[in-house]
Structure formats: C-alpha cells, structure tokens
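This section describes the prediction task in plain terms. A model, or a person checking by hand, is given the sequence of a single protein chain and must write out its three-dimensional structure as a string of tokens. No templates, partner chains or ligands are provided. The sample shown here is typical of the held-out split.
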Amino acid sequence: MSRGWQTFSALLLFIGIFNNACVEGLGVNWGTVSSHKLAPETVIQLLKDNGIQKVKLFDADPTILKALAGSGLEVMIAATNLELADLGDPTKAKDWVHKNVIPYNVNSKDGVNITIVAVGNEPFLQAYGDKFTGVTAPALKNIQDALNEAGVGKTTKASIPFNGDVYMSPFYNPVPSAGIFRPDIADKIREILKILNANNAPFIVNIYPFLSLYFAKNFPLEYAFFDGATPLVDGKIQYTNVLDANMDTLVSALKVEGYSDMPIIVGEIGWPTDGDTNANVTLAQRFLQGLIKHLASNKGSSLRPGYLETYLFGLFDEDKKSTLPGNFERSWGIFKYDGQPKFPLDLSGKGENKTLVAAKDVQYLPKKWCVLKGDAPTDANLADNMNYACNNGGDCTPIQDGSSCNFLDAKQKASYVFNSYFQIQNQSNTSCDFKGLATVTTQDPSVPNCNFTIQIAPSTSTSPAHVAHSSSHEQGKSAASTSLPGTLATILAFATMLAQLRL
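The expected answer:
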C-alpha cells in the first residue's frame, strides 16, 4: 500500500439535479449485486423522485440502459477490468462502443445520455500488481478513439476510475502539497493523463474515509467527518477533514505532471450502515449529510476550490457482494435493498428537503418467515445447518461481531440465518427444513433494531446479478509514523485504505 494521503481510498458518488432538490454535481452508484433487484423502471423513478440526475453503473447492462432511454439522467457506464486486454485491439474497442454506446442514441432526447465510459475500475490498485498496468492506457485510447470516430466523442468521454492509492505524499514529507503519483506506476499514469487531457476528459478518483477507521482503530474519528475537527496544518493551509486533504494530494500530483487544471470527479464515496462498530446509521447519516453540505457550499478544497462532481456509494444494499473485505461490504446503500430510506438525508445540502423518497409500488413475497423450532437443540447439528445457510446464499453478516443483530441469542441467530436463506430461495417449500430444525411462521420474528427480512418478489424485468462487476474491497496498509499525536503526519500515518476489487 502506498504512503501518505493516498491511503485514503475513495468511493464517492454524487447526485446532480436541475430543480435544486439535490446539490449540484451529486450522483449515485447503482450497483446490482443483489439476490432480488428492483425493476430498473422502479429504480429510475426513485432517482427522479429524489432529484438525482446522475448515475454511475459498473457495466453496460442492456436491460438497465434500455430502461434509462429517454429518462434524461446523465449516465456513466463501464467496461470491466477483464475486458481491458481485449480493448487494446482497436477493432474490439470499436465493437464495444458500437454495442454498448451507439445503439442507445446518446445524442437523442429519447436515448441514453451516456456522458462517461469508465474503462476498467481501479486497475492500478496495488493488490493487482502488474496485472492491468500494461493494458489500461491502450484500452482507454482505443475506446476514446472509437467514441470520436462514431461522432459522440464531444459528449461522451472515456476515463478510468482510480483508487486513491495511485497518488501519495512521500514519507519524509507527508502533507497534501507534496503529493505525487506512485513512482512504480508514474510512467503509466503520465500516458493516461496525456490521453485524458487531449480529449478534455476528467480524472476520476474513489475515496473512502470510513476505511481509515476500519483498518486503524486509533485513527482520529473526527477527521473522517465535516463538523470542524482541530485543524491540521500544511504550510498556511489548515485541514479539518480527510476528503479535502486527499483531494489536494491529488491536485498536487496532477500539478507535478503539468495538469493542474484537469477536471476531477469523485467516482465513489460513502459510509456503510452495518457490519462493523463504525458502520451504523448514526455515523453514516453524519458523514453523508456533512459531505452533501460540504459539496453544496461549492467551497471545494484549498487547492481545488469550487464545484466538485461526486457520486455517492451506493444506492442500495447488495446482499450478494463478497464479504472478504469485511462484513460491512453489503451495507453501503443510502436505501435498503427494497428502496426504503435508511435515514433522513437532505440532498440539497441546504436544509430544504430532509426526507428521501422511497421506491414506489414494490412487490414483496408473502408475509411468512422461516424460524428455528422452539424445541430444537443448540448443538453442532444446528451450527452445521446455520453454516449451510450462510454458505449457500443467506446473508449472515448482520449477526456477526459488531453488526446490528449480534445481540440476538443463539436461537434467534439461527432463526435469522434460516430466514435469510428462505427468503433468498423465494420462500420455496423445501428451503425451510434444515433437517427438521426449522418451520414456517406467519408471525414476524423481528425485534427492535433487527429486522427479519421479507424479500422483494422476483421481477421479470430485472437482469441477473453481475457479481464480477460489483464493488468490493481489499485491504491495504499505510506506512508507520513516528510523529507525535495531533500532527498532520499522524493522521496520514493512521489512514488506511480499502480498495475496490471489480474483476
């Protein structure tokens, strides 16, 4: 993992609007790695009802793109990392553009307003080694050339969402003003910056302050938020939050390469609500509301003042994502799995509207649950059946340490796990048996602060989950620091990053 401010990884998505219901430049990441997905038409109406005008996808799902036609939303689509090698062939890049961009009539009011094609996702992540370093720049150039040749290059730009670990401050001067690109990839970054600049395309970065807390338990909590922590000083500049410091490290790195004015977009940023002691509704609301207010001010950071296009991560919780990075990985949504708001959130950043609008006309499975029989023993057989449920689709993260349902007793935890599997299996008759340990009930077993889910009814218009395109993370480790507590270097040293793995 690289040193300094680069370690603050990024996942930021902002929702931009035309009617002042939402802060300028704010968009949202729409992930689809869920067992039961809302119909695309329902999601698009949800976005509109909440004034969200920008959406970022992790692939080029034709079902979703067809639904977006005529919506007026600004859309970022993506080619995955596994496609990068093929896209190094100009002919294959043209084929990709003519399959995933041109059919949707990007310049028509009845088409899809595709503004950016993301070429890969965090391909220079240190965890990947050199897997994608040689194929990324050629793929970027070929996609942009194909867009230009097709006549849409002025309105649709190719770019690459990078993780914050591509830039850093040297260990001997760990401050934002000393930011540089990581030396081992600097030559490749220069090649990419040249392509972006030639086509007036933005630099996209993903940033996650939550991950600093997750990997460094003694990271000063206040610097992850926007309430005015004790300033940390870099020359004459004072920093009170991780985001501004991270952003200025990137701006400094771009300046070193001669691109101080290159547009920057925060492609992902957010805060999970379950799966860790710091992943909860209270802190998520605090972070997101502070972030949106910060964006609404159009103050920007010291080295990059003004408007900042940002995408929140993410729109919904996704119960099929890998939990290898942490149990929080399935809980990044500002909405629950079914489009219900998790907490009040003023998307204007000005106190104009503190209520998120829920998804409409959501259809659910029948009101029944799978629970442990009252006389079932809590023995090894029960543990084996719980493990089966967890390993075969059930979402068992809420009962883990630090999670919302961990307070349940052993029998309640078994019921939670059995019900999760039962719902994933669409309440099939054979999915609530577990060798005679379980039974179906119509009495809701939910308790305060722990909801036993009833899943969304399957929709014929939803597309299958694209697990390979989802957002997941891999741990990185920051350099140690011998600086005294309270200094800027200490904050930098404690910062650790969790990076996306989207293969």
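For orientation: The CA atoms of residues 202 and 263 lie 5 Å apart.
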